[in-house]
Write a structure and sequence with these properties.
Length: 231
């Protein structure tokens, strides 16, 4: 059922960030900046960057989980993100402040391997993969929690430009609900995020007017500047 909001009653839901980049650019470390207890679903075993934290709960998958990754992930998601209140109603676990999906590239590769083994039609395989990621994206949005998803980069269509290391349609299906899409990279020794689609990388920022920022400023939304642009 759709939800109907009268003017002036539109809720502020959790912002969703999709950040992609090369190794060592600080993708996983971005999770440290997000509010509350972070629930991280890690798909590549690269947890060294957050080993010094005490506010990140990690569910880490490896190659042994690949063949049942969709089922295992959904089980873990439901077990950790939801709980029942005293009245028996299913609610979002109040312990969780942010959900993190670390390395969606690896997750995509496992999912398509499983789907390819289940169907003969290549077009159908990718359609099923895109649907699975679209459904996952809406599931994340429905929690109304802040979301961080990371992915590896690959070379774009022009030398010096980059895009997420994902099938193009799968990326579009997954990232459609995200408020920010950014390419993270090293610039003069600092981790920098490019969110400007005019630069040629995959980028978007629906939260404010910032285009290129330092990585540690990702959550510093400039609401005043946004308001000025809207006037």
């Amino acid at each position: 059922m759709p939800k109907y909001f009268k003017e002036g009653t539109i809720p502020d839901v959790g912002d969703m960030y999709f950040i992609y980049g090369g190794k060592g650019t600080g993708k996983t470390s971005l999770s440290k900046n997000f509010p509350g207890l972070k629930l991280m679903f890690n798909f590549d075993g690269s947890t060294n960057a957050i080993a010094d934290t005490d506010d990140i709960r990690v569910i880490a998958y490896d190659q042994g989980d690949a063949k049942q990754i969709q089922r295992q992930f959904m089980y873990d998601f439901n077990q950790n993100v939801y709980k029942k209140d005293e009245q028996g109603n299913v609610i979002i676990n109040p312990e969780i402040g942010t959900i993190v999906l670390d390395n969606v590239t690896a997750l995509q590769n496992w999912v398509i391997d499983n789907i390819e083994n289940g169907a003969k039609d290549g077009r159908q395989n990718w359609n099923l993969t895109q649907k699975w990621f679209r459904d996952l994206s809406f599931l994340l949005r429905k929690t109304q929690l802040p979301i961080l998803a990371t992915a590896h980069e690959m070379s774009g269509d022009v030398v010096g430009l980059f895009k997420p290391d994902m099938n193009e349609k799968t990326f579009n299906a997954f990232a459609s609900t995200f408020d920010v899409v950014g390419h993270i990279y090293k610039s003069d020794g600092e981790n920098t995020i490019d969110m400007d689609p005019e630069n040629g990388n995959k980028g978007a920022n629906r939260l404010d007017s910032r285009k290129t920022i330092k990585a540690n400023e990702l959550l510093n939304i400039n609401t005043e500047e946004t308001k000025e642009e809207e006037i």
